[in-house]
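QA checklist item 7 of 12: single-chain prediction sanity check.
[x] sequence parsed
[x] length recorded as 151
[x] structure emitted
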Amino acid sequence: TPPISEAEAMLVELLARGVAAGLARQEQEKAAVFLQNEMQIARNIQKGFLPKSLPELPDWEVAARFEPAREVSGDFYDVFRLADDSDGYVGLVIADVCDKGAGSALFMARFRSLIRAFSQQGVARDLTGSLAAPARPPCSRGGRHLGDLLV
């Protein structure tokens, strides 16, 4: 068999490059679909951390809407009754974790869990039945408590 010509070698090289580019594009498309699926899962997880319903409070109308800046973010809100509280006290959390993306969403999930856990321990009733808040260290502004500023 005679050796291939320079033109035939160039044609084979062009065909090989075309096949390689097609395979690379196919891998990129697979990666994009995978990433879209992963982001959808992350969005669903994030939505799962938001309250399914909001507490009904006398003389209050509480509503919420969640619209992340990107597919997944560290933004969240929560509204919940405080533990052992029949007097109508609720916790309200609105947060925007710095940056966006999956890392912020994971931090948000952890932070939300901590807020919920500590809120259930934060207010207790003493033996007489009245509210007894735990001891709080003063904040840095004039020795006032954050709770005093919000009440």
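[x] summary fact logged: The first strand starts at residue 73 and ends at 81.
[ ] second reviewer sign-off
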